[in-house]
């Protein structure tokens, strides 16, 4: 049963974001009936108060919440610093409620403190990937009219270059990774003059809390708007019913907090349950394994390519503390799942989510994971596979995935894309799936990754999964390229393992290998060996760049 979303009078003086929400007639239907926790979300809600202040009120103030190298912050310390930064934003920088604040930094305790401070002050977080260049930052600043920015001192050059062409960016403050005041760390200097308490802005549950930009796998990133209630709803679905987070968990992973997979898995989810997160200065497979070994990490969040690399190195480390791994960003190939399980005994959780819906909506607990399948509906969400007419197709038949639940797509100022993503109240993430008789979803491809060759429909990821089983393939990507005779042919871009020869004979061997694994008409008729594949900063393949 669809339930009217909670609301209340907006606390936002700056109406920019609210006025650029899509018309409500274009929103998906929101359903809060899936799990009991969703029905308890109040009309007045500040997500920072719910996730941070509430933890301290419950007696968790002395528990660790964030670790980076030799530094550990408690919930008490995070709350005090977030309150101080909120005071700086309001009292020294004149942030109006509803104002957009750009955050730019790698994953550090100070970035988390800034994120909570913005919400406490009634602002809207716009967290950006730390490796974005000036032109990419300029796009975001212009799109959402950024007025304030908080930036790590090591990442200021590109932001200053972008800010020179953005007269609306009135306040730019720097902070250090260590969180201590220096001549350059102006934010800490101002913050340390503020008290450790702050009166949180009484935001409505449906006030915009963050604008998250998609990772740009199909072109320019799109801004998606999420309310305070969306943040809390997301924390009461995936982490409670699939990931099973406990207060004793220590999380680690590679996704930046600008990526909603990282924001959820490395900040929102653990804090919902009083757990902690260890941030890493390096995101290499060896660094992840060392963190597990040296710091007792219990849950890992990263992309399939990282899990594949970790599987090969796991035997060199003591990772007995690790009980769970969550994969997202790309579909988890069956070969990668099996390799990781064989190396560690851990049944990886595959999670399907999107920036538009904030986090995952299809997954399964480790005991219920099936290699080669993404999982089932996460409690709180409904998912189905439909044809072009929007009607459900029979089990085993491919179709478009449609999703509905407590979160959903609202693009900022983009009615055309909104109409593409939301149809008849359902969110359409753009994935082709098929569903088994007992409700398990199996990924086929992105809708735009389907290759039509000589009249056959060929899913690029299926060919990739077959190639990944070949012992000489480290990574691969498959796309369709134009062909005069067949309209398109399947082409594979392959990164070889060390020691493998990039020769025509190797390519022929791989083609024959694929023919032995899947229907022969699906094999890659062209194979190109490359040193690396184009990816976003979150590890997603950018196949559109390979298509030329």
Word description of this protein:
The chain is an alpha/beta fold and 548 residues long. Among the domains are: 219 residues, Rossmann fold (3-Layer(aba) Sandwich), CATH 3.40.50.12780; 93 residues, GMP Synthetase, Chain A, domain 3, CATH 3.30.300.30. 30% of the residues lie in helices and 23% in strands. It is built from 17 helices and 27 strands. A hairpin with a 5-residue loop joins β21 and β22. The radius of gyration is 23 Å and the shape is globular.
List keywords for this structure.
about 550 residues; alpha/beta; Rossmann fold; GMP Synthetase, Chain A, domain 3; seven-stranded mixed beta sheet; four-stranded parallel beta sheet; 17 helices; 27 strands; globular
Question: Care to give the gist of this entry?
Answer:
With 548 residues, the chain is α/β, with parallel strands linked by helices. The protein is built from 17 helices and 27 strands. The strands form eight sheets. Strands 2-1-10-9-11-12-13 form a seven-stranded mixed β-sheet, with helices on both faces. A four-stranded parallel β-sheet has the order 4-3-5-6, with helices on both faces. Strands 17-18-21-22 form a four-stranded antiparallel β-sheet.
Task: Describe the largest sheet.
Answer: 7 strands, mixed
How big a fraction of the residues is strand?
15-25%
- Distance from N terminus to C terminus (CA atoms, Å) equals 45 Å
By CATH, the superfamily of one domain comes out as: ANL, N-terminal domain
């Amino acid at each position: 049963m669809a339930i009217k979303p909670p609301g209340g009078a907006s606390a936002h003086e700056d109406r920019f974001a609210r006025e650029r929400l899509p018309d409500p007639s274009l929103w998906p239907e929101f359903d809060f009936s899936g799990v009991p926790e969703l029905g308890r979300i109040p009309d007045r809600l500040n997500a920072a108060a719910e996730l941070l202040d509430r933890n301290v009120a419950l007696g968790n103030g002395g528990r660790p919440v964030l670790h980076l190298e030799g530094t550990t912050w408690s919930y008490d310390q995070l709350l005090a610093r977030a309150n101080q930064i909120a005071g700086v934003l309001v009292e020294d920088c004149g942030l109006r409620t509803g104002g957009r604040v750009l955050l730019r930094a790698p994953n550090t305790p100070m970035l988390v403190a800034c994120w909570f401070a913005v919400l406490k002050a009634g602002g809207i977080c716009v967290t950006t990937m730390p490796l974005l260049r000036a032109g990419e930052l300029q796009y975001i600043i212009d799109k959402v009219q950024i007025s304030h920015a908080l930036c790590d001192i090591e990442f200021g050059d590109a932001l200053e270059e972008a800010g020179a062409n953005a007269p609306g960016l009135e306040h730019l403050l720097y902070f250090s990774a260590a969180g201590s005041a220096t001549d350059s760390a102006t934010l800490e200097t101002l913050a340390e003059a503020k008290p450790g308490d702050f009166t949180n802005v009484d935001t409505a549950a449906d006030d915009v809390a963050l604008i998250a930009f998609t990772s740009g796998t199909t072109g320019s990133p799109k801004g998606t708007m999420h309310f305070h209630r969306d943040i809390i709803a997301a924390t009461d679905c995936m982490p409670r019913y699939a990931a099973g987070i406990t207060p004793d968990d220590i999380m680690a992973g590679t996704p930046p907090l600008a990526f909603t997979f990282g924001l959820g898995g490395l900040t929102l989810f653990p804090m919902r349950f009083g757990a902690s997160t260890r941030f890493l200065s390096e995101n290499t497979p060896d660094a992840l394994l060392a963190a597990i070994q040296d710091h007792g990490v219990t849950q890992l969040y990263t992309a399939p390519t990282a899990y594949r690399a970790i599987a090969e190195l796991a035997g060199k480390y003591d990772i007995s503390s690790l009980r769970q791994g969550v994969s997202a960003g790309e579909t988890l190939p069956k070969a990668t799942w099996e390799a990781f399980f064989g190396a560690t005994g851990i049944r990886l959780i595959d999670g399907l989510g999107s920036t538009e819906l904030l986090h995952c909506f299809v997954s399964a607990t480790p005991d219920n994971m099936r290699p080669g399948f993404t999982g089932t509906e996460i409690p709180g969400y409904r998912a189905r596979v439909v044809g072009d007419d929007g009607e459900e197709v029979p089990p085993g038949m491919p179709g478009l995935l449609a999703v509905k639940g407590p979160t959903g797509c609202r693009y900022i100022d983009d009615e055309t894309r909104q109409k593409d993503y939301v149809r008849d109240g359902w969110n359409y993430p753009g994935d082709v799936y098929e569903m088994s008789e007992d409700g398990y979803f199996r990924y086929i491809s992105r809708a735009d990754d389907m290759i039509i060759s000589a009249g056959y429909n060929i899913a690029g990821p299926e060919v990739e999964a077959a190639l990944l089983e070949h012992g000489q393939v480290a990574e691969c990507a498959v796309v369709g390229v134009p062909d005069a005779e067949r309209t398109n042919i399947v082409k594979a871009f392959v990164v070889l393992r060390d020691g493998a020869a990039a020769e025509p004979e190797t390519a022929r061997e791989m083609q024959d290998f694929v023919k032995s694994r899947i229907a022969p008409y699906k094999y890659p008729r062209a194979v190109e060996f490359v040193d690396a594949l184009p990816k976003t900063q979150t590890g997603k393949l950018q196949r559109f760049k390979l298509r030329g």
